[in-house]
Design a protein that fits this description.
single chain, 377 residues, alpha+beta, Beta-Lactamase, Rossmann fold, 48% helix
């Protein structure tokens, strides 16, 4: 029972180390103790350089390790184990050469014997065309050669070390992906929120956090995104619910919601479902159900007004009114900005509704924002 309990605790700590790399050193030390070894190591090796990375080890001083990798790694008969053993299979010097010959080698006399070591046994944890990982156990001469008990105990822990190494690699890869995408998202000028169906913020980029900090038209309430305007917030709830529910009306390109800041600036939210079509696996695997892109509705690209004018066959006067509506707001504000009578703006606005197939100023804002919507191809 004592061995079973010790093994159970060790296995639990092995998997803890897979998620928390700083625990590896202590786990390797406990594994060496359990198997009755004087030292042990989990050694990832990059095949193209044949260079091992002894970061996860116990029982061998750093200077001794350095001496091994600089002068003796190619003289170590046990290094050939990696070429003849299968995954999780134990390998030692004995099958490769008689122990009586091993103690006559330069490697034994110059590196093994001075440390008081007697034997080593290894197990292949992972092997591919580009990399491998091994678990090595060192035996001190006072413990003798690797015996049947040590082999049995090593066979009990090796499968768990292998799974933990694979989990650790996957975890590191995912962390790398998160870091890369976080840097990309933080470089976007548009605010980006990943939210669940209830509006809880799962992730936000730098621009989005700036928007929330300002609290002008969007804010976070108990971790959930909300519009400062009550009516707009109700509409936002509907958009999130429809997008998260894979509503057919939302469609692949999402939905657009216009917003107005207290300063009078116009903003637009583009809601993109993460549970639709090819995005379904991403949405299913994470808490996020909707991606929200928030940007200023102003046409900040010099080419966009020309594109809009050509698309809807707008006259210069109609285009100026359209840009004014988008930039400064309603008819009185647009008239003041353009220096014309409100009736003139209303006349052009009626023609804009006719040419664009819209009937509200908010629809014009959404339509124009669509030309610079990163979700529309």
């Amino acid at each position: 029972m004592q061995e079973s309990e010790e093994l159970a605790r060790l296995i639990g700590e092995i998997y803890d180390a897979a998620m928390e790399p700083k625990l590896w050193s202590g786990v390797v030390e406990k594994a060496a103790c359990f198997i009755a070894g004087s030292g042990a190591g989990v050694l990832p090796k990059d095949a193209p350089t044949n260079r091992e990375n002894p970061d996860i080890d116990h029982g061998v001083e750093s200077q001794v390790q350095k001496l091994y990798f600089e002068n003796y790694v190619n003289r170590d008969p046990s290094s050939a184990v990696q070429f003849v053993t299968e995954i999780e299979q134990l390998g030692a010097t004995a099958p490769l050469m008689p122990y009586s010959e091993f103690i006559e080698t330069r490697f034994y006399k110059e590196w093994v014997q001075p440390q008081g070591l007697a034997d080593v046994v290894s197990a292949m944890l992972d092997k591919s065309a580009s990399s491998m990982a091994m678990f090595d156990l060192l035996r001190h001469e006072h413990s003798g050669l690797v015996d049947a008990k040590a082999r049995r105990r090593m066979q009990l822990v090796v499968p768990h070390f292998r799974r933990a190494v694979l989990i650790s690699r996957l975890f590191e890869l995912k962390q790398g992906e998160v870091a890369i995408f976080s840097r990309i998202f933080d470089g976007m000028t548009a605010g980006m929120f990943l939210v669940d169906a209830g509006g809880r913020i799962v992730h936000s980029n730098a621009a989005a956090r700036t928007i929330l900090h300002a609290g002008d038209f969007l804010r976070a309430v108990n971790g959930r995104i909300a519009a400062c305007d009550t009516e707009t917030d109700l509409t936002l709830r509907e958009v999130l619910s429809a997008a998260a529910g894979d509503d057919d009306d939302v469609g692949v390109k999402g939905r657009t919601l216009p917003l107005a800041a207290r300063s009078g600036e116009r903003y637009v939210i583009h809601a993109l479902p993460l549970t639709s079509g090819a995005r379904s696996p991403a949405g299913a695997a994470r808490a996020a159900a909707v991606a929200l892109f928030v940007r200023n509705a102003a046409l900040d690209s010099a080419s966009l007004p020309e594109i809009v004018a050509k698309a809807y066959k707008l006259t210069p006067a109609e285009l100026r009114v359209l840009l004014a509506i988008v930039d400064v707001g309603g008819v009185p504000q647009a008239a003041a900005a353009l220096g014309v009578a409100p009736t003139t703006v209303k006349t052009h606005l009626g023609r804009l509704f006719e040419k664009t197939g819209t009937n509200r100023q908010a629809d014009l804002v959404k339509l124009i924002a669509g030309f610079s919507n990163p979700l529309v191809g």
